[in-house]
Amino acid sequence: MSTNQEALNMPSRYVFSVALIPVQEWISQARRSRDLRAGSVFLSFAMAQLLGQLEKMAGATILLPRSPLDQGTFEELAKQRFDQALSWDYSVPNRASGMLKAKDDEAVRSLFRSLQEHLQELWLDHRDGWLDQFRRCGGRSFEERLAPHLEAYRQDTLDGSDSPLDLVWAALPAKGSEEQSEDDLERIDQVFRNVKRSRPIRPWPHGRPVGKCNQCGCREAVGPTKSFDAWNRWHQEIRELPWIVKGVRLEKGERLCYVCLARRMAGYLGGREGRGVPFPSTAEVAASTWLQSLETVPTLAEPLAELRRLGLEEAEEARALYFRRRRPEADPLSDEQRQKLTRIWTTLGSRIGAYNRLQKEEGPEGRELPKGPSPYLALLTFDGDDMGQRVAEEPTALPCLMGTFAREARALFEHRGAKVFYLGGDEGLVMTAAASALPLALQVGALFREVFRDHPKLTLSAGLVYFDYERPLGGAIEEVHGAIRKAKGYPAKNALAVRVEAASGTTWEVRPRKWTEDWGWVGEAVRQVQEGELAVGWAHDAALFVRSLPAARWGESPVREAAEAEIHRLFLRRLTPKARRLDRDPWQRLAGAGSWSARELGSAPELFHLIAFLARQGFPQEAPTLRLPTDTEKGAA
């Protein structure tokens, strides 16, 4: 064979970029924390599978992202099962770029078509496995009623057409080597953006004249499909099943589609007889700060141990254990367990009261315990600004630093007791108790600046949303994404935006502010209120006062100075006797942490409202949270 013929038969090098879509839509289709965790993990799991296939079938070299530390290649990572992936302490980003070898353009197209087919097969295999879990968690009666309708649905979707994820990709002949891939990565990044922006809408081929899923709002809810009346009667009947009344997997009134139902079951995988709880509920996270504070008091050890044992008996949901405002008949507890819980709460209440009386007698340094947990928790999301473009410019150094940031952030979240939904490279989504959220967000910002200190142009934006634990999680996810969009819309980005979803249904937000401005001042004010040195009424007084100021004259120095003096006067008037006995200068400590007037006047009232809100959430925790025992612990017990 001639040299020219050999060259023609040799595979060509292509630079490619591939991603799963729609990420934000899929992530936000969640009502429980385990829905969100299962959806996020399936994204990572599917992406690892696809990248493993690229390495295996086309000898691909994945340049971005780097394979998780200590995991080898993506091909090796793809050998793990989904239930193993639920315990991964890392996430695989939903977009990847690299180099592959193929004979020609048609071979590349064929390769990515086969990846789309592999994605659909992956979905079908796992969907059917997840939907076979009802019997293992006590839902046999529900399974029997669902079986004929589920079988009909399976027959309709044998082609994987109900897969919630699709593949979008772009590939170009490579010009440079893998060692000099900067130009190729920049080219494919632009082409990929154009392809993703112009992708066609995929029709839903399984529409029926019945009600929609009230989690995703996209697909039809499970049940009969012949008529709306038959479908509605079926749902009215299953509402009375004990398994649903107790909210073991489905709540009364929840009408999920088969995709969301499979996702719900996936979130509970693992453990003995499928009853493990691999990820805590929103109630557990909301209560974690309060439980952490109780663990420091020796006299409360006995009732807390009893609460743990009660969790060993029934660990499906923590709402019944920590929050008593729900209807008891809707809790997954037996009458005997409910009686035990009442006795435990009575003991806790009396001992907390006795402890607080002792704290009052100890004088200024005493710290009282709250009688119950705050119902609020928070979602924090963060993302590097324009990192795709930056990484394409420095494809060697920045991915390594992004891995370092993700690893250090993971350690930080574990120490603070935050629960990670997604963490990969420069972006993440975590859930934490309300009291810990702002300090945690500020630490993430400081960590990013430290890791990328040799790249001062790189910045991080973040969104933080506080919400009630009983609120469906999907709305909070949309709000936190809205918050980070506001932060990224701030001049020069590099900001944190905060929203509060009150239990009453009202929503208010603090406009984006840069990491190094204002937020330290907020944290110090909250600490002084929590320590009992400053009455929370100061924040309300200050909010009313700044609302009365003339915004048009805010740029004048005399107006600002007069406003600062009045805020100082209100501060001194609201100092507590404890602060006066301690003989410290709290105003100087507050002023040293920043200034409320550093930014525009318009957002100042919300800043003071945020101080009042955070001061009621308890003390930030400094250690991992207490959660319900795992199945391993249950077996040991």
Protein traits:
disordered C terminus; Alpha-Beta Plaits; six-stranded mixed β-sheet; disordered N terminus; 26 helices; alpha+beta; 10 strands; 637 residues
Describe this structure in words.
The protein has 637 residues and is α+β, with helices and mostly antiparallel strands. The chain has three domains: 11-135 and 156-197, 2-Layer Sandwich (Alpha-Beta Plaits); 298-368; 376-615, Reverse transcriptase/Diguanylate cyclase domain (Alpha-Beta Plaits), CATH 3.30.70.270. 50% of the residues lie in helices and 12% in strands. It has helices at 3-9, 23-28, 33-58, 74-77, 82-85, 105-130, 140-156, 182-197, 228-238, 242-245, 258-266, 282-294, 301-313, 319-322, 335-361, 387-393, 397-416, 434-451, 473-488, 519-530, 537-547, 557-573, 577-582, 586-592, 604-615, 631-636, and strands spanning 12-21, 61-64, 95-102, 166-173, 376-384, 419-424, 427-433, 460-468, 495-501, 507-514. It has a six-stranded mixed sheet. The chain has a four-stranded antiparallel sheet with strand order 2-3-1-4, sandwiched between helices. A hairpin with a 2-residue loop joins strand 6 and strand 7. Helix 17 runs antiparallel to helix 18. The longest helix is centred in the middle third of the chain and has 27 residues, at 335-361. It is globular and about 80 Å long. The relative contact order is 0.10. Mean pLDDT is 84; it is low at 1-8, 271-277 and 621-637.
